[in-house]
Amino acid sequence: MHEIMEHFDSKAAETQRHFDVVAKGLNANIQRVAEGHGVLIKKIDGLEIRMDGLETHMDGLETHMDGLETHMGALNRVWKRPR
User: Fold this and answer.
1) Which value, in Å, is the radius of gyration of the alpha carbons in the chain?
2) From CA 39, how far away is CA 18, in angstroms rounded?
């Protein structure tokens, strides 16, 4: 009976060591994923800032184009007047 208990204790310790190695590896992998996630979030934030700037720039260009179209319409009306 004593030998069985020693064998059981030995196997339990071996299983615990194996589990500890596996858990340590999982923790390292989870840490790498978390770090990669943080890097991606920063990159996405940077892209969002750039997109906001581009949208603002596009709005300005559209406003400018509207003004040019208004001026062109006025010029066309002047040129088409009978003299």
Assistant:
1) 36
2) 32
Write the pLDDT tens digit of every residue in 24-64.
Answer: 999 999 999 999 999 999 999 999 999 999 999 999 999 99
Model confidence band, residue 69 (pLDDT cutoffs 50, 70, 90): very high
Kindly state the DSSP code that residue 81 receives in the 8-state scheme.
S
Q: How far is CA 14 from CA 46, 79, 80, in A?
A: 49, 96, 96
What gap in Å lies between CA 58 and CA 60, rounded to an integer? 5
Report how far residue 27's alpha carbon sits from residue 31's, in angstroms, rounded to the nearest whole number. Answer: 6
First-residue to last-residue Cα distance in the chain: 122
pTM: 0.58
Structure-token pair, residue 1: 């009976």
